[in-house]
Amino acid sequence: MSSTSPVILILGSGPNVGQNVAQAFAAKGYKVALASRKLKEEESTAEQVNISSDLSDPKSVIEVFSKVKASLGLPSVVVYNGKSVSRYSKPLLRNLANILKAGAATQNEEKNPLSLPLGDFTRDLNINTVSAFVAAQQAALSFEQLPDSASKAFIYTGNILNTTTLPPLMDLGVGKSATAHFIQSAAKAYADRGFKYVFVTPIALTMKLIKDRFYYADERKADGSAAYFDIDGEAHATHYVQLAEGKSQGPWQQTFVKGLGYKHFAAT
Asked: Which end of the chain is flanked by fewer CB atoms within 10 Å, N or C?
């Protein structure tokens, strides 16, 4: 049954960023839909729908949106937070990939990055980019059908690897860079696609434009370096709520600092 409350869909619901974002939007009155491989659909509630989905299969994203529409209604906020970490020979690299967050990565040889098996590269690219692209497509279709007053935002949890390299994690950087590119393209293309938001006051008829917004979010330290071990789920949640509540497209690359919010940093 569709809900009259706004709906957020979070693809990839890990215990740090995913769960904190879900809690923050639930506190704002949103119905929450979570999608990931480990979720149990039978544990869904009236306030939160769990959907089992493997983001290494891009076609599964379309099914996720169909289930959300049928159970809660069209999502007005979509957060892509997909992640998979595998094949690490060194514990430090495993920890580093985990703290970079929201990404699929397979360790490669630093001196021979092109030795990475095609199967691993393809799976990780599907999670980092192809499924994210499908999610953005489905979000745009959803936004077109929503009421004029609805907030409409697509937010991708990124990291610093679209602007720099980390030699043992080449395929993670490839995925982040590719996704950053289509997010930038979407933010530019849809910036002027407005939806009329009309409300009547005793004095005049006022009109505003609520626009589709697309963001690549990347938590940093105050000096602009990667957050690494200090990734903060609550900081993500606070920033994502602010992005969702905005009325127009801000900078597509949302580098932000805990406690400060958005801060521009020059590419490294």
From this structure: N
Q: Give dist(CA 76, CA 50) in Å, integer.
A: 17
Question: For helices 59-71 and 131-145, what crossing angle results, to 10°?
Answer: 30
Greatest extent of the chain over all pairs of C-alpha atoms, in Å: 70
Tokens of 38: 């480990």
Buried (b) or exposed (e) across 212-221, using 16+ Cβ within 10 A? bbbbbbbbbe
pLDDT at 21 over 80: yes
Using DSSP, state whether 1 is helix, strand or coil: coil
Intra-chain end-to-end CA distance of the chain, in Å: 48
Q: For the chain, what is the mean pLDDT?
A: 86
pLDDT over 70 for what percent of the chain?
Answer: 84
Q: Is position 83 annotated as part of the catalytic site? A: no
Q: Name which of 16, 20, 13 is nearest 39 in CA terms.
A: 13
More confident position, 199 or 161: 161
Which one of the listed residues 31, 67, 83, 176 is annotated catalytic? 176
Nearest-angstrom CA–CA distance, 245 and 169: 34
